[in-house]
Specification:
Number of strands: 9
Number of helices: 6
Distance between the termini: 101 Å
Strand content: 35-45%
Organism: Melia azedarach (Chinaberry tree)
Protein name: MLP protein
Helix content: 25-40%
């Protein structure tokens, strides 16, 4: 006896049918940039994109998720540059939380680079390595994958950090998400503490970027003229 099933749905969209068909048939890999919280990668193993017979390897996540949205004053482009190209800035803005950020492989701002972090959690120093998997400069998305460290050996099977920045009037919104799979159900909640530290780091970075903006304005236009009142 065999069992068979079927599940389907209908989704109404605004894009033309031809555009959606092109995405599904020829460019399925774009979903990794558009939905990094769900799909971490789509790699062509054999054949050519858009041709029948090609073989695709999908990398997606099934596990826990924890995220937050932080409203900041700096622009989306400024914050994306920090997450994608200058993550080491946090060692200056939040030295109490993050002590070092070293480039081990690749180049700053390039996918495939490997970064080694040293940070303090609960007064205990820890070192981890992360792979920069995705940098999307159009949608302001950066995805980090944890590849080495005590937490990967003892706590998580996999751990991703996803930063997506969206513009907002008078600033931007930092959407920060952790996606993880724990080694077992008895593992204590560590991700909430790490997220709280990240929220503080984002606020510190924001304060630094705004201060730098003010410095640049003074350099370009000089101090505001003093207005004196005449008796």
């Amino acid at each position: 006896m065999s069992l068979a099933g079927k599940m389907e749905t209908v989704v109404q969209v605004k894009s033309p049918a031809a555009k959606f068909h092109e995405g599904f048939s020829c460019k399925p890999h774009i979903v990794a940039s558009m939905s990094p919280q769900s799909i971490q990668g789509c790699d062509l193993l054999e054949g050519q994109w858009g041709n029948p017979g090609c073989i695709i390897c999908w990398r997606y996540f099934h596990g826990g998720e924890l995220g937050t949205v932080i409203e900041v004053k700096a622009s989306a482009a400024q914050f994306h540059e920090v997450f994608s190209c200058r993550p080491h800035l946090v060692t200056s803005t939040s030295p109490g939380n993050v002590q070092s950020c070293e480039l081990m492989e690749g180049e700053w701002g390039k996918p495939g680079s490997v970064i080694c972090w040293t940070f303090t959690r609960d007064k205990n120093p820890q070192t981890v390595k992360e792979l920069v998997e995705i940098i999307d400069n159009e949608d302001y998305v950066t995805v980090y994958k944890l590849i080495e460290g005590w937490v990967l050996e003892n706590v998580y099977k996999s751990f991703y950090s996803i930063a997506k920045i969206t513009p907002k009037d008078d600033g931007s919104l930092v959407h920060f998400t952790y996606k993880y799979e724990k080694q077992n159900e008895n593992i204590p909640d560590l991700e909430s503490k790490v997220l709280q530290m990240m929220i503080q780091n984002v606020k510190d970075i924001d304060a630094y970027l705004i201060q730098q903006q003010k410095v640049e304005i003074v350099k370009e236009f000089g101090d505001a003229p003093q207005i004196t009142q005449q008796a």
